[in-house]
User: Fold these one by one.
Assistant:
Number 1:
Amino acid sequence: MNVIIQRLLRHQCGVVARRQVLAAGLLDRDVRRLVRRREWAIVHDGVYVDHTGPPTWLQLAWAGVLFAWPAALCHDSAVRAADGPGRRDRLDGDPIHVAVDRDRAFAAPSGIVPHRLADLDAKVQWNLGPPRVRVEQAVLDVAAESRSEFAAIAVLAKAVQSRRTTADRIQKALAGRTRIARREFLSGVLRDVAEGTCSVLEHGYLDLVERPHGLPRASRQLLGSSRGPVYRDVEYQPFRMLVELDGRLFHTGAEAHSRDLDRDLDAAVDGRESVRLGWGQVFDHPCWTAAHLGILLRQRGWEGQIVRCPACPDGGGLRSSRDSFPPLSA
């Protein structure tokens, strides 16, 4: 086997296309002989891997790109390649998402999901192996197509946490997109990530938890405490119950956690019950959250009743398997 093909196999993780082999000087009969001798195995028509065992995810990614060439990884496959294909939280059975030019006709074999993109050259990092759409664009595609807003939040948080990109860079990529689902929501979450605030979470609590389920109207204001003035996200004043909305999208260290515990302890000293909620409670299972808050409020003297919203159990479509109402008796 000549030097050029050996170099290709090293660069492409053991995967090579027939056109590359023929350009390097081999003949079709040479390729058939390598397959017959089980030195190579067919991954897709015209694409081979240099062993007969199961291909790795990275080899499947290379095979998808080479089969569709000129093409690049996109969507979740581009994100996975950027994160590192060996992550334990990834499943190897996922399809390979491949981007080709918008005007190109392309029939994808099993295991490859094609996406047609306008201005493909400008969106792809061709120097990477395998070539892939820029991570900001890929992250936006995955977030926009996520099954829920909470899943979209997790995609954005993970991308920033990995330090492969920043919230500002994703925000700039979003501004350049002419059409994308969840634009306003994604923009709001990205602003929160960049600024360290939780306004999206506060609005979500109001619109998904408090209002549609008939919880009493809460106040949001500065309160006195044993440590001085403290801003409380949500207070149900007549019932001396606080709801703290934790908008951090990933861990910020022991010091921040300690401050949160101090705030909860202050609330207990002042005779208030403090409940801490995050993105999952608000966006992933708001009905379940509202039901539990209703129980706590009733225990503290609220005489109202939880209202079932259209997404609640028996009300037209559950958001999560946890969206079942607990008994409303203490």
Number 2:
Amino acid sequence: MLTKVSHSINARLDAYLPERRLFLKSDRDTRFIRLRPFTQLVALSIGALSLGWMILATAILLMDSISAGTSREQVARQQSLYEERLNALSEDRDLRAAEASGAQARFGTALEQVAQMQARLLASEQRRRELETGIDVIQNTLRRTIDERDAARAEFLALNATGSGTAEARQRDVAASLAYVTDTLGQTAVQRDGAEKLAAEADEKFAAVASAKRALETRNDVIFGQIEQALKVTVEPLDQMFRDAGLDPESLVDAAKRGYDWQGGPLTPIRLSTRNEAPFAEEVRANSILLGLQEIDQYREAAFKTPFAMPVRTAVRYSSGFGNRRDPFGRGVRGHEGQDMAGAYGSPIYATADGVVTHAGWQSGYGRLVKIRHAYGFETRYAHLAQVRVELGQKVSRGDRIGDMGNSGRSTGTHLHYEVRIGGSPKNPMTFIKAGQNVF
């Protein structure tokens, strides 16, 4: 039955694929292999399927290569933009800090000038009071002299009325009295003119000092306004970064404040008066600016101790994200407590915040793992490393290299598994990375 079916198939295919013979010649004899039409059809089908499979596989590989190249280019562009924003923000922060330092120095100089002007004003006021007192004394002396003159004139008239003494003696007494009164009046007039001149000069100096003080107050107001605006512009991005990450900036700043050194240094509150007097308006405003600078420093300290930075600076591809996912080893849907970043083998891995290394070695599933304990209850984990470059108990700063990207542990390819935990609970690392990408 099978022979008949085979013969029938070969007979129908003979018109399209005639029977061929493949001769094999050796030194002794010659043999041949018959290639029936059905055999040729099977061979051609297998060849066509193989060719089609090769074309399909090649197309898939080309599409994957093009897609991977596009992803790398996008990551490279994003990395370049991120670095440019980071450099610009660093330059702006340094510029603001330099402006604040310069403004603080100018403010100190201005305060010294104000103190000197106030001292001169007080001295001028004291001299004016002394001049007023001198004028009062001169006027009293002039009145007393006039009274003495009137008394002498009355005595002279009384002597003339009684006829006592000679005419020559009376004339000498009158001449002496007139000379005394004239000299006294002349001296009094000279002292009065001098006092009036000194009073006029004191008024002019007082007006000049008052005008200079008003100009200085206006200039200080402009300087204070610029510094206050710079403080506001510096604090707002940091405050928004904490809020975008779901953190309370007030509590973090309070925690940083508890560990802050308030003694000595250029940010010591200004106190000009030594008599427990009420502070000047400029003094109050300057102390407010100093408190703002301290707050910026506390924000900076909190930011450096919180994992907002990227753990990888080379081109990466975000593969598995935070949350539930299908297990790559076929074990159903399981929770994924971090963010996977695929990249080149051996790419440097950096600490995302200041902290202390609590684990540096192999751990089941994670492979080569580095754990870092940060302030405020934060912990970061860096898994599947090819090499660990830190030791247990080592203190690290944000940006220190702690290992190399690899494929150790329970992994299907070269990548970094990055985790962020608060109080032991895993959080989405991308929340912190996105919150800090426009600040750091």
Number 3:
Amino acid sequence: MKTVYYRDFSDNFVETKNQTKSVPENYRFIKQNPFLKLAGAILFLILKLVASIYGKFWLGLKIEGKDKLRTYVKSTKKGYYLYANHTLTLGDVFNPALYNPVHPYYVCDSSNLGIPILGPILPLVGALPIPDSIRGKKRLFDAISTRAKQGKAIVIYPEAHLWPYYTDIRPFDSTAFSFPVRDDLPVFTATTTFHAWKGHKKPRITIFVDGPFHAKTDTFANSIPTSNLSERALQKVKASSLHDQALSALKKRATSSTIKYISYKKRKEN
């Protein structure tokens, strides 16, 4: 078993060939060109086919609970937000196409656009890269809301950095949960877990889907009624509630892993 040492949870262990790839301020997140839209639809079907083959033969993929997503979509015809642990280099790109019953759109770091071959394709199949500028981020947030309100799935990896085969859940704040609060949509989680795979060196993958989770706003810290809070404070309470439910679900499912392919240990400072 390989051992990897880290200083803190912000360490990045996977870098692309063009790690500094950035998104311009005027980046068009939602493609209007009909040829690009057609190309995107065709490429997504190809991505889904490749994902199916890759998942079966390379990951030994099993998905538990995806019926929860189908039931929700069928009964509401609405979009949703899905939060997942970030542990697979290609699997985290491919797998959401297999368990989401609607088109998934991925919020990702702009460095992903620098991945050879795959990088330029990602925006066409659903990647929503994060810009550096405030104005650029505002355009991204608008695009996220638009896709969610169109009934699509918004996939977010709140841990930010990819830690291959990590079997626990790294801490993340409630910032990313302001999106479902704003759009009044529920949250689901997808937890990637790792298991022994006979005849294979690498572990087999099982993904557990949980939810839907809805914001709870009945009480606040020190029993202060939420009716006494400002609208902004109430939004933070709702985001915090969704964060806590999602984190709890991810942590609970992460304990299902039965094997460690890579051991992560905190580096001792001298």
Number 4:
Amino acid sequence: MENLGIDIKIMVAQAINFLLFFFIVKKFIAKPFSSFLEEEHNKEKEKQRLLESAKKIEEDLKVKKESMKKEVQKETKMIMEETKKNALELKESLLEEAKREAEEVKEKMRNQVEEEKQALYKEVKNKAAELSFEIVTRGLKDSLDEETQKRITQKILKNLN
């Protein structure tokens, strides 16, 4: 091999250097680099898993939000309907109360009108009796005796009652 220009000692030294370099690189550079790459790969997988988990949680939250929104709308609608129902019941009871009070006022007014009518009738009757008595007293005073005047006056009063 010397003819070719290859020196065995240098070749062995080169091989030993290469093996030493190989073991040093493997132990101090390749192994830490490999574990670093594996760690980064694991971190990336963990990030992907967390991202997927977060997306799933987000979707679950969207579904819950929608269901809660529908439930709130349903409850709101139910409350509005109940409020309308209560308002209608209150309106009806107020109308009934107003009608009842109006009937009471009408009845009181009828009674009052009737009382006033009776009082007016009595007053007219009394005025007619007084007028009749006055007519009999003044008109027939000279022509009738006292006894006849009393009888006529009593007949007039009986007829008025």
